[in-house]
Amino acid sequence: VQGARVDPPININGSRQATNLGKALSKANPRPKVFFSSNLQRARMTAQIASSEVDASISVQPLGTLAEVDFGPVAEGMPLGLAKAGMEATYAKWAIGNIDYRPTKGGDSARDVSGMNL
Length: 118
Fold this sequence. Notes:
This protein is mainly alpha-helical. Strand 1, helix 2 and strand 2 form a beta-alpha-beta unit. Helix 1 packs parallel to helix 2. The chain is elongated and about 45 Å long. The two termini are 28 Å apart. The model has no long low-confidence stretch (mean pLDDT 90).
């Protein structure tokens, strides 16, 4: 699982997907004039590849409020099979109203994820 704490570059498959995204967006009407990404390396690279397919002059703007949920060390960098139970448990706690619950050993609360003072 690659979340908020794991920041590898985009891989070959992701690069192909970003290229295809850009090709599709180049046919949109109106075409995008700006791309936003989170601060993660793979997100910035995805936006740069996609935007270059639309128009090489488009700027990619990092937007700090675009971020992946931080599930903490119980999920970050773990195989999906191991991380899934902890992620589902976190969402379940949030769904029943426990918005201040954080995964074991740190991570985001629902309040953090919403960006609002719920």
